[in-house]
Amino acid sequence: MHIHILGICGTFMGSLAVLAKELGHHVTGSDANVYPPMSTQLQAQGIELTQGYDPSQLDPAPDVVVIGNALSRGNPAVEYVLNKGLPYVSGPQWLADHVLQGRWVLAVAGTHGKTTTSSMLAWVLEHAGMAPGFLIGGVPQNFAVSARLGDTPFFVVEADEYDSAFFDKRSKFVHYRPRTAILNNLEFDHADIFPDLPAIERQFHHLVRTIPSEGLVIHPTTEPALQRVIEMGCWTPVQTTGVDGQWQARLLSEDGSRFEVLFEGVMQGTVDWDMTGQHNVANALATLAAARHVGVVPSMAIDGLSAFKSVKRRMEKVAEVHGITIYDDFAHHPTAIATTLDGLRKRIGDAPLIAVIEPRSNSMKLGAHRDGLPQSVVQADYVVWYAPANLGWDLAATVASSPVPTKVCDSLEAIIAEVKAQVKPGAHVVIMSNGGFGGLHGKLADSLQ
């Protein structure tokens, strides 16, 4: 079958293409921006990519067109599909029909930590010999691919609350019908499609409605929004994590790199790993609960976590130049920025910490999170903010109240000059963006050389 994917270079759609190819289909695709790392992953798989959305790419007609949620009415390829009556489907629907049918789906949902937690869970199952399939919105370093079918009934999916397609405004995760569901946390995000937090809570409850009564819902005790979701109605056993939860962690190091795990008050073992931050300790507890649900004993799962290598672009050390360490991180929400910087601060102690932040997500561009930005960086010693000309709101005025010395720059060159003026050997520089940031990481490293 010939499947053509519109919007193929997104992390979800690119992963879908890998699975379709593995199923034996002829897969092609197009995107407005064909660029690494997804473009290189797809080309390595022998998947033909077209730049742009000219309708000619749909002639001869494929058997089905999978349309990504970044495309809307007015797009020339979308209009051609509709006018010609070509069969089309959303990515999540295709995944549900052709990959997830009949499998034990373990879904990881939440505002933050989906990619890291789904990577942890896939790796823990792999470590236990369960050879799971997975689809993750990033590249776990333990696997080096973002998706695979797997050899067993188990399938781990990063379950996103973003909408499915222009013709299906339900959250993607409503399609997945998990048996095991991690609800990691829940805050307001995606201001481009959700008016407020209750609208997102409603979508999370749609997910809860689909989980069987023999399944399992896992959530932390510290999230009022998730408590409200469960109180709307839950027909599934629940396990809780964190403070007062059934799964608890006792920190052995302040940065979260070593901690003991307790289940219902009974010691299960000690995680000793390369990760830092209270948020990753929370991710680990949810992972252990989900793994136990499919039969992995906690001691074996803890061994797996101790060998976990994180995900590309999640506090990934990308360079060390003259004693200056540069990290690449995906954080794009005030809570994620704060928890990530806190974890690093606890690891590096009093060493100088410079954060370089691009407010790039749709919610950031709309200014939905701007009130949380000044306080999100309190663990840094100096912050450089990127305010491109098209940002649409006054970033400098917003961060003027920050307790941390700040500089707002409107170009990569200005950012590099500012970091070079501030940095000295022994410093740590974290570059935070949910995009490529114009290759700033490499340019800064080259300039520091």
TrEMBL record:
Taxonomic lineage: Bacteria, Pseudomonadati, Pseudomonadota, Gammaproteobacteria, Pseudomonadales
GO molecular function: UDP-N-acetylmuramate-L-alanyl-gamma-D-glutamyl-meso-2,6-diaminoheptanedioate ligase activity
Swiss-Prot/TrEMBL keywords: ATP-binding, Cell cycle, Cell division, Cell shape, Cell wall biogenesis/degradation, Ligase, Magnesium, Nucleotide-binding, Peptidoglycan synthesis
Gene from which the chain derives: mpl
Cofactor requirement: Mg(2+)
Superkingdom field: Bacteria
Binding site for ATP: G110, T111, H112, G113, K114, T115, T116
Pathway per the UniProt entry: Cell wall biogenesis; peptidoglycan recycling
InterPro entries xref list: Mpl, Mur-like_cat_sf, Mur_ligase_C, Mur_ligase_C_dom_sf, Mur_ligase_cen, Mur_ligase_N, MurCDEF_pg_biosynth
Signal peptide: none
Catalytic activity, as annotated: UDP-N-acetyl-alpha-D-muramate + L-alanyl-gamma-D-glutamyl-meso-2,6-diaminopimelate + ATP = UDP-N-acetyl-alpha-D-muramoyl-L-alanyl-gamma-D-glutamyl-meso-2,6-diaminopimelate + ADP + phosphate + H(+)
Enzyme Commission number: 6.3.2.45
Protein name: UDP-N-acetylmuramate--L-alanyl-gamma-D-glutamyl-meso-2,6-diaminoheptandioate ligase
